[in-house]
Write a structure and sequence with these properties.
- The complex is a heterodimer of chains A (349) and B (340).
- The radius of gyration of chain A is 32 Å and the shape is elongated.
- With 349 residues, chain A is an all-alpha fold.
- In chain A, helix 8 packs antiparallel against helix 10 and helix 11 runs antiparallel to helix 12.
- Chain B has a single domain, classed as Alpha/Beta hydrolase fold, catalytic domain (Rossmann fold, 3-Layer(aba) Sandwich).
- Chain B is an alpha/beta fold and 340 residues long.
- In chain B, helix 3 packs across helix 4, helix 5 packs across helix 10 and helix 6 packs antiparallel against helix 10.
- The chains are: A mainly alpha (349), B alpha/beta (340).
- The interface between A and B is large, with 69 and 67 residues.
Chain lengths: 349, 340
């Protein structure tokens, strides 16, 4: 028989090993489900002991379960809420919201005053920042306030539904108990309770998340989240780019390169089509081969810039793209001189 | 059940899930073409002589195509191969940051390229195009532009009319898609996963896993479960410009079913689809419900067209174990009759 230490050790090893092997989401959701399942079992047990003491009212049951189910709500929605919670932060989000409300009302002087108060310990650094910094910071704060309000409304909507579902469950459970007492062989065992709980709560949330007002809150939440991300990034890039030591290109610089890459790939595609309809000749074969080599170079650049390049690497990539663009344009000119046209798509009637 | 028994059952199941080795996408294939993140694969035939008309499968750019070949006893691919069909498939890969500007036009262009390769290899200038989910929508668009290249069209759980009142449609319609793409670039797979989980948050984040604790499941069940989990959470990002385009034009404006969708300046007219068409719909599909596909059959000009109903969900059509899964022999018979 294993000692308690060996037992615990064995379980720990299994947990760690499973964490690394299973999909991350599967591991989290499965391990959370144990806690939730256990809490539901305890809730059922608490209600059973109340049942045995006499007549049960649904309101009474609701009070017991509202408390018992409290821990379950956060457990269930933890993974889905995590991105919002990370963005919302902890206590400082409240301070930021209050500061945001004040600065919004007193822009620009109040805003500058408040921002100055926050940044006072770093006042020497302020004079290094670009002049647009306060406006960018204001944008971040504004979008943060919008996000926090939307998140609060979304969370409230889901939590209210939770309470409604608990109320509904209480009523249904009392009805089922009353029904079962007509037939002495039937009892409300945990399995039946669990099925009833699943049906009630699942249906409540499926319906809730399709309601127009909830969809509207969800839209506000996703929009404001995106605004926070975009504005925060713009502020950070503005601040970081002041330093000559900052090695990384901005998102806009990266996007511009990605666009050129994509456009160049399309150019290669277009010229390949022109070449492919040409009658086979050794010079055409050479052109085809050079296109293939150039395309490989483009793919190589694409791979390099997909993993965070430094500024220098990005500049080198851009220069390579410029040269490749010249080469594909040259091939295109030669093909057109040969009278080459790409295959036409079927005409629309 | 006492607390300790629950914990014991949990640990026992967790250990089994860890110990079992699962592989997906097991049916052997060769990669025969690659372009950037896109590739074309050819499944090794399982009969001596395959039918003349090859099949090109086009899956969605959301999630991975191996749902059609999850495991040997739940594989649409194997079913097709065992009945003598010559099967190719496009794999849309995992978009990276540099692929942000890939558009729907690029996907259609690659279908054309892949089809050309398949046609050349098979010696057939027309093939069977089999699209699943958004892959079906892409196949539809391609077929309307190139009816001369498609011999038969199979649409599996394919949304065409995006006005069906389902949660996913409602959310997509209200999404500020420009803000999403401008903030994130490519739309992360996790973002889409969360949306799918929200279709039934209690069932999909708790109920499914609680069932593993409620009663012991055998290794066979757990292997299938684990393969499904691997597939569900193996979600590629969607290129930003593709996301912008298809959410706006399909979900929000519903242009496709109205014959108002344009691609690279060309209008997509579904009436140009004149080849034999089979639409597979699933009654409990919350992503492409039957009403999202059925209107199509009134619009296309094909005279040989049919709908086959599966009593299952969007994924169940491919991997379900219920008797409804038995509808596949009828689907394959339909394809075989038109593959001679």
């Amino acid at each position: 028989m294993l000692s308690e230490d060996n037992y615990v050790d064995g379980y720990s090893k299994t947990l760690v090993a499973a964490y690394f092997k299973l999909p991350r989401e599967t591991f989290e959701l499965f391990t959370r489900s144990v806690d939730t399942y256990t809490k539901l079992f305890e809730a059922w047990r608490n209600s059973s002991s109340t049942l045995s003491s006499g007549k049960l009212e649904s309101q009474e049951l609701f009070k017991i379960w509202a408390q018992d189910f409290q821990g379950i709500y956060d457990d269930l929605f933890e993974m889905l809420f995590r991105p919002m919670k990370l963005l919302a932060g902890l206590q400082w989000a409240d301070s930021l919201t209050r500061m945001g409300d004040f600065t919004r009302l007193s822009w620009p002087f109040g805003a500058f005053g408040n921002i100055y108060a926050v940044l006072k310990p770093y006042e020497n650094l302020i004079y290094l920042f670009p002049k647009e910094t306060p406006q960018l910071l204001q944008k971040v704060v504004n979008s943060y306030v919008d996000f926090y309000e939307a998140w609060r409304d979304y969370y409230t909507g889901l939590y209210e539904a939770w309470n409604k579902a608990t109320e509904k469950l209480s009523t249904q459970f009392v009805e089922k108990v009353a029904e079962s007492q007509k037939d002495t062989q039937k009892t409300i065992d945990f399995s039946a309770f669990f099925d009833l709980w699943m049906e009630t709560f699942s249906k409540t949330y499926i319906e809730l998340l399709s309601l127009p007002n909830m969809v509207s809150v969800q839209t506000r939440l996703s929009s404001s989240t995106m605004e926070v991300i975009k504005n925060s990034r713009e502020l950070l890039e503005t601040l970081m780019s002041v330093s000559p030591a900052f090695p990384f290109p901005t998102k806009s610089e990266m996007d511009e390169t990605y666009k050129r890459l994509h456009s160049l790939k399309n150019d290669f595609e277009a010229v390949s089509q022109k070449v492919s309809v040409q009658p086979t000749r050794s010079d055409i074969h050479k052109v085809y081969e050079s296109i293939r080599v150039l395309k490989e170079k483009v793919d190589g650049i694409s791979q390099k810039v997909s993993v965070q390049p430094t500024r220098i690497e990005l500049m080198e990539a851009k220069e390579s793209l410029r040269v490749l663009k010249k080469e594909v344009d040259e091939i295109n000119r030669k093909m057109e001189a040969h009278g080459a046209r790409p295959k036409q798509a079927p005409q629309q009637e | 059940m006492e607390d300790f028994k629950v914990f014991e059952q949990f640990m026992k199941t967790l250990k089994t899930l860890h110990d079992i080795d699962v592989d997906v996408w097991q049916t052997p294939f060769d990669e025969i073409h690659k372009e950037g993140i896109f590739r074309l694969i050819h499944y090794k035939p399982r009969v001596e002589k395959t039918l003349p008309t090859p099949v090109l499968i086009v899956y969605a750019y959301i999630n991975r195509p191996y749902i059609l070949d999850l495991q040997p006893d739940r594989s649409v691919i194997r079913k097709l191969l065992d009945k003598g069909l010559d099967v190719y498939m496009i794999d849309w890969g995992y978009p990276k940051k540099a692929d942000k500007y890939i558009t729907l036009e690029d996907y259609i262009r690659y279908i054309d390229k892949a089809l050309g390769i398949v046609a050349k290899r098979s010696g057939k200038d027309k093939i069977t195009l089999h699209g699943y989910c958004i892959g079906g929508t892409l196949s539809l668009i391609f077929s309307s532009l190139n009816p001369d290249k498609v011999k038969n069209l199979v649409l599996q759980a394919t949304p065409v009319d995006f006005d069906a009142p389902r949660a996913i449609n409602l959310w997509a319609k209200s999404l500020d898609v420009d803000k999403v793409v401008d903030a994130m670039g490519n739309v992360p797979g996790e973002f889409l996963n969360n949306a799918f989980l929200l279709a039934d948050p209690i069932g999909l984040t708790f109920g499914k896993y609680a069932n593993l604790i409620r009663e012991s499941k055998d290794e066979k069940f757990l292997k299938t479960f684990l393969r499904m989990e691997k597939w569900i959470f193996d979600s590629p990002d969607v290129p930003g410009e593709t996301f912008r385009q298809y959410i706006k034009d399909w979900y929000q404006k519903n242009l496709l079913i109205k014959n108002q969708f344009t691609l690279a300046g060309k209008k997509i007219d579904l009436r140009r689809i004149n080849m034999p068409t089979l639409a597979i719909v699933a009654d409990y599909d919350h992503i492409a419900p039957p009403e999202a596909t059925k209107p199509l059959l009134k619009i296309i000009s094909s005279t040989d067209k049919i709908i086959m109903n599966f009593t299952t969900g969007h994924i169940g059509v491919s991997v379900g174990s219920k008797p409804a899964y038995g509808l596949w022999p009828k689907v394959i018979d339909w394809m075989k009759e038109r593959s001679q």
